[in-house]
Amino acid sequence: MTASQSAKPAANSGKPKLAFRPLPVPQVDIRGFWGDRVDAVATRTADILYDRCVEARMLEQIDPDRPSPGVVIPFHSPSPDEAAAAGNEFTGSTVTTQMFWDSDWGKTIETAAYSLYRRRNDELEKKIDAVIDMYGKLQQPDGYLSSWYQRIQPGLRWTNLRDCHELYCAGHLIEGAVAYYQATGKRKLLDIMCRYADHIAETFGPEPGKKKGYCGHEEIELALVKLARVTGEQKYMDLAKYFIDQRGLEPHYFDKEARARGEDPKAYHFKTYEYSQSHRPVREQDKVVGHAVRAMYLYSGMADIATEYGDDTLRVTLDRLWDDLMTKNLYITGGLGPSSHNEGFTSDYDLPNETAYAETCASVGLVFWASRMLGMGPNARYADMMERALYNGSISGLSLDGSLFFYENPLESRGKHNRWKWHRCPCCPPNIGRMVASIGSYFYSLSDDALAVHLYGNGTARFDIAGRPVELIQTSNYPWDGAVWIGVEPEAPTEFTLHLRLPAWCRKAALKVNGEAVDLDDITSDGYAAIRREWRKGDRVELDLEMAVDRLYANPEVRQDIGRVALARGPLIYCVEETDNAGQLHRIALPRTAKIEVREEPNLLGGIVTLSAVASKEASENWQDGLYRTEPPAVEEAKVTAVPYFAWDNRDPGEMLVWLRDS
Ligand SMILES: [Zn+2]
Questions:
Q1: CA dist list (Å): 462 to 29, 119, 178, 414, 473
Q2: Which residues are annotated as catalytic?
Q3: Cα separation, 163 vs 148, whole angstroms
Q4: Which of 277, 444, 587, 605 gets the highest tally of CB atoms within 10 A of its CB?
């Protein structure tokens, strides 16, 4: 969740409220590990996103004062095969217009907005204002706004919700509008998007004469919740709920819509409505299926509605889906969606490493979902996975300097998977940008009489509790060290509960309040220690989380990982890279008895901790051009050095491997 959700009281007064709300972005100053990431986004990525959008000729699509760039791609969404055939690297001359470019503008605006909290950037702000002016001019008198359906395929609005991302684009522009309003106080885009949301509410809904549809690519649901919270307008919340409740009901809207277009509904490229989680009503769903990003956005919206309306039927469904993802379908990196074919899920325990799709957006989406589950109260079941996805499968998608990107995040590479400047489907760069730039809001959440600390690291948070301002200062070298020092500075003595997460990876934790040891067993539930007291200026909390090196093994049902081991330390999953290990990484075998050395490397990859051990490796020997023989290969000793997975491919290109052979 983001700052947008705390700006005003919840829209639906009288109904159950969100128990815990994330702190707004500007109330959390982030330093240390995440401070470096935020700086990279604020000083480089935010500008790069704008520049690449312009280079991709996206301005031409949205600017009514320029000639329309014209139709370039077919009516349906391009399949991944088509995308691959078209080439992933963006080049100016071969770029094709995309029906989802409004969403890229939305996320670019959102990234710029959060970045402005970190660093003034008048030039970028001016450019974003100009983009907003174009959207203002483009908007039709009835409020409708879609650069694709106005500029590229006019006359076809609301005819193909299944494939064409129309409401999805609206959702991202709404999120951008909310964030930009909060960061700059400028409400032009917010007003534009309220007019558009009003139009959408007039078009869709349960009332007679309105369309009974919903978007093939979820996103509008969670965006409308943000819009409702920032404006206090209940109708936007109700519309979000309508889209969720309506999904997958029979007669199926996408069938009806296809027939109206004169198409056979069965001629659907992806064959099954599981692709868009519309195969059955959401409350009857029990498996994570289909396109992974769509699934994460849907579940995020469902979690919002579950908390806003106190809807336990949604909550039960979400827990079922969470279990399915966590126990059968999640990479150890917090990546998800193994297949490029549907950009999503396949079958239980199918987690191939080299061909893992594991889109950056999907991990970012898991962070969104997990953070919303924390709205129902502190629970390490969700926060642990939020941390896993944050530190591994999501930020792996952004180079350390903030300039290059991954779309897929495999767990094994033979050296050809390298970061790119841009993508013909550029959803991931602004998604990771907006998440990193708003990271402060994932650290804490606040209720009427409690503050929950979900993540650790250097930084200062400011919030009001019981009407009194409080400053909370975290000092820690996390994620490299598990010692966390927290200073609590209320303006006047104030009673509240401080919830501190005890991560599942930590087997031994110790807590002191003002120097006195506290028994964690007495005060811990759902993976959080709860300290309730009257806090006074100068109070100090010391949390010591033992950060051991872990050898992790996969459930033997995961055929790709059997006989293999992955290394982890604290929240970080490690990998080996060719540049540290002389290549041929598949030959490395790590003995279970190997002592693993932990070393601080302040000058490597921006300052990391490496893990190294003496392993074994099949020797290079002359096989006389033979492929097979009866004598096994000779084995020699080899030193192996592992680095955090998120930092891979920031040096010389080469092989990479997460799951090592276990011996
Ligand atoms: Zn993406």
A1: 9, 19, 21, 46, 9
A2: 343, 427
A3: 13
A4: 277
